[in-house]
Fold:
Amino acid sequence: MNSFQVLDAQEIQVKNIAQKPPAQSVTCDVLIIGGSMGGVAAALSALKPDGNDRHLKVCLTEETKWLGGQMTSQGVSALDENWLVETTGAALSYIDLRQDIRKHYLKTASDEGKKQKYFHPGNSWVTRLSFEPQAALDAIDERLAPGIADGALSVYMRHKCVQVETSPQANGSKKKVRANKVLCVNLDTNEFIEFIPEIVLDATECGDLLPLAKLDYVYGQESKDQTGEPHAPVQANKENVQDFVYPFILEMRQGENHTIDKPADYEALRDFRKFSLLGFKMFELAKRLNPDGTTSELLPFWTYRRLIDKDNFKPEFYPRDISMINWESNDTRDMNFLDKTPEETAKLLRKAKDISLSFLYWLQTELEHDDGLGKGFPQFMLRQDLLGSKDGLSLYPYIRESRRIKALTTICETDIGAQYFTGARARNYTDSVGIGLYPIDIHGRQEQGAAQSSKPFQIPYGALIAHDADNILAACKNIGTTHITNGAYRLHPIEWTIGTACGAAARLSIQEKIQPWKIHANENLLKKLQTDLLEDGNPIFWFEDLAQDDPGFASTQLLATWDENYANPNSLFVKDLR
Structure:
């Protein structure tokens, strides 16, 4: 492999490195490629000791300098979640991570701020928890530290996977791909390192291992013939991939001028993306007339993804508001960079950065004031110190749609869409390894099928297993969804749960000396995997009132998942079943 693309902290670089022998070779039980939210969760899950207090040898690689993906290096630290996330709507490890982020801020909170039941640093209206990315980074590092200290976990920052050596594994009439060796390069030193793993988890943001291992995969929009989805188009369009974006963070510095230099091609990019707040006002409430004649109240744009509300803190710690900008106008649309040449990819990602910087310049110079008496907010200062980059944009673009495996189970629109279910939940999967809830939120062309409501859904284990993979699992946004259902499965707590399940499956595979796909075909092993997850506080069935510390949590969850007669489809409550 002579060339590859690097998403660097400063800019997109295309490097050409001659192949040379690896500087070192590392054998491990579990290799996790990608330090995304799924990758971090997978590492923590795989590190759980067995009955003899023995840990697996786990290696985790990440091409940027930050672990945490969406909530850190991609700048989306105003979390996209569900309304039960504080109690029963997510994995316990995810809930605990959020609580530790809160504890970090409570040290400097004002007396009024401390009165909140669930302290919310930014008081943003898109989420229940928003914060500076560094707070999540610190919480992640703290969780991984024990595994690193005892030698069970090795983390390789600024390492990118560039090659996978595979061999076919006979399985009856079909053959599955086994990853024998994985080659990564250190982006700072250009030295290669070779990993020899038992199990490989692809936790990259774009499903980078799939083409390298020559697995079947898809991306973009499938046709109705391919998925059978009511809202899929007649013709597939693989280039129609969800928008990606470079978020940035602003601080409100009233009375000061922090206008950036006018970006090159500013006017063209402004007109191309049609910069707008879509009827919102910057600091005041607005009203929108709906097609049915009713009106909706629109909250201030500034507080949409605000990370720090100064009124929550003692003034000596946070004297000013800080807000993250991740909006429709700075999304990069109709510019898929998957499976393009490195040079094409670099140009597309450079343009994405220019769109975000142009949107910032528009906010600072052209956006009409709420009272209509002026234009521009030069007091918005780009915080170039909060995202780890020199240009003030996120280290890595926020990726909403990845390459996706052709899985044993493909989750379709009719499996989760609210309009297809009269009961309280979506389709029940007996192989469930987690839960999620989010609308089918598609950033990009708003074809039919976008913006549907969903019912509380599950994550089937079969969706994490590629039909042609022997020892590889999908551990990020690369699971068996469609273009439509990816819009509901790509969010923070769901990706964390996917990674957690993959880590547990890898651990069980090593313990049982079998491949991950064989767990799916063995009911006893599948129930063992589910029990392992439940014992660690990872729900696999939706109940609103069944907390992880309930003595009957694991048994009730397992019974409800496997016994169709047990769970009332019209109820989310255990109390209705007891």
Confidence is low (pLDDT under 50) at residues 1-16. Residues 219-236+400-542 form one domain. The radius of gyration is 23 Å. The CA atoms of residues 66 and 383 lie 18 Å apart.
